[in-house]
């Protein structure tokens, strides 16, 4: 194994009794990279993290770090720091002593511990809290203490198990930015488990998207969202319209009572397919601006529901054949009179914005 590959997981499987949790999982993480394990509850992402930490033993496969196998190594020999969802702070220890815990076990001198803890208190904006106990801190402050404790021993790999899920939305968004800034400043290889798509897209250099114990796709946030490899990825990432159809001709797909033009590429005529249409890629054509020649993939529909989502308004529309679509309208273009329930709407979808999957 090359030393340039900070972490390599090869054909890893894990079962509890007769129940498989991880199924032949393989990937590589480069030094200094921030990777998120993303997926629905029960997909195996936390079990995978625990295998990396040495807190679970895989049933098969290997884990390499710096070119050496660590598959059977105990946690103390893996040079990792881990932050759990519950923070797992010692309630009877002060913030200072919680952060210093690992350094005391390493038998550092008091002066070195004081210097290291002081630096982390400053780095994580915990000034004035060193003598407090966990019960005296907010959730966000407790999370910072847990991060500081994990970083105190200067691990080469930081593992985060849903570290922000217990926090409210505003604190979560703020800490998300702080974690990313901290990771980039320290250049520490970081793996985080999350079920939150926005969190993964905001933080990760790459996302490992999992489903039922397997990896569905590995890629950058842009690739995972805009170039999904499977219908599961398309449906899990963001909001999507997934339609069933049959390739009727080159670059034409029949969907019930209508046809859509799109790039059929390697899908032969007669192939059953699923079509992915993102709500933000469906354009509303206002009647005053309707072109003389009907645009490609023009659909007339009726608004059946309106959702106000801040920067966008999501219109749920249905055409005469019963097709239902979600259409995003920017706040700037939204008209509360024209875009109201029961009003008719014309929309168009560019052929290049439709993605096909074999059904």
Please characterize this protein's 3D structure.
By secondary structure, the chain is of the alpha+beta class. It is 24% helix and 34% strand. The protein is built from eight helices and 20 strands. The chain has a six-stranded mixed β-sheet, sandwiched between helices. Strands 13-12-11-14-20 form a five-stranded antiparallel β-sheet. α2 crosses α3, α2 (95-105) packs parallel to α4 (139-152) and α3 (110-123) packs across α4. The two termini are 38 Å apart.
SSE inventory with pairings:
Layout: E1 7-16, E2 19-29, E3 34-38, H1 45-53, E4 60-65, E5 68-69, E6 80-83, H2 95-105, H3 110-123, H4 139-152, E7 157-161, H5 169-186, E8 189-194, H6 197-203, E9 206-211, E10 214-219, H7 221-226, H8 231-236, E11 241-249, E12 252-255, E13 258-261, E14 272-277, E15 282-284, E16 298-308, E17 312-318, E18 324-330, E19 344-349, E20 354-358
Parallel strand pairs: 3-8, 3-9, 6-7, 7-8
Antiparallel strand pairs: 1-2, 1-4, 4-5, 9-10, 11-12, 11-14, 12-13, 14-20, 15-19, 16-17, 16-19, 17-18
């Amino acid at each position: 194994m090359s030393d340039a590959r900070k972490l390599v997981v090869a054909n890893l499987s894990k079962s509890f009794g007769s129940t498989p949790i991880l199924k032949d999982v393989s990937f590589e993480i480069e030094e200094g990279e921030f990777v998120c394990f993303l997926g629905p509850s029960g997909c195996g992402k936390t079990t995978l993290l625990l295998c990396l930490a040495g807190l679970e033993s895989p049933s098969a496969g290997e884990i390499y770090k710096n070119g050496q196998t660590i598959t059977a190594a105990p946690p103390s020999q893996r040079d990792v720091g881990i932050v759990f969802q519950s923070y797992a702070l010692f309630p009877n220890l002060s913030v200072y002593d919680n952060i210093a815990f690992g350094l005391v076990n390493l038998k550092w001198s008091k002066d070195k511990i004081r210097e290291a803890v002081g630096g982390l208190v400053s780095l994580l904006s915990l000034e004035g809290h060193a003598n407090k106990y966990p019960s005296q801190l907010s959730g966000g402050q407790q999370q910072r203490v847990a991060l500081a404790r994990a970083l105190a021993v200067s691990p080469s790999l930081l593992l985060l198990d849903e570290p922000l899920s217990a926090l409210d939305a505003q604190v979560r968004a703020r800490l998300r930015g702080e974690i990313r800034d901290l990771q980039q400043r320290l250049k520490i290889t970081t793996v985080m488990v999350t079920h939150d798509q926005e969190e993964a897209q905001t933080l990760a250099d790459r996302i490992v998207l999992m489903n039922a114990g397997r990896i569905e796709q590995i890629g950058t946030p842009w690739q995972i969202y805009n170039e999904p490899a499977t219908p599961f990825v398309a449906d899990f990432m963001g909001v999507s319209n997934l339609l069933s159809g049959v390739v009727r001709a080159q670059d034409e797909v029949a969907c019930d009572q209508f046809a859509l033009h799109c790039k059929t590429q390697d899908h032969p005529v007669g192939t059953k397919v699923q079509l992915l249409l993102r709500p933000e890629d469906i354009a509303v054509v206002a009647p005053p601006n309707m072109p003389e020649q009907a645009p490609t993939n023009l659909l007339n529909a009726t608004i059946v529901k309106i959702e106000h989502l801040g920067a966008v308004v999501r219109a749920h529309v249905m055409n005469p054949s019963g097709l239902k679509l979600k259409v995003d309208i920017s706040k700037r273009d939204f008209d509360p009179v024209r875009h109201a329930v029961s009003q008719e709407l014309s929309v168009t979808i560019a052929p290049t914005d439709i993605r096909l999957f074999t059904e």
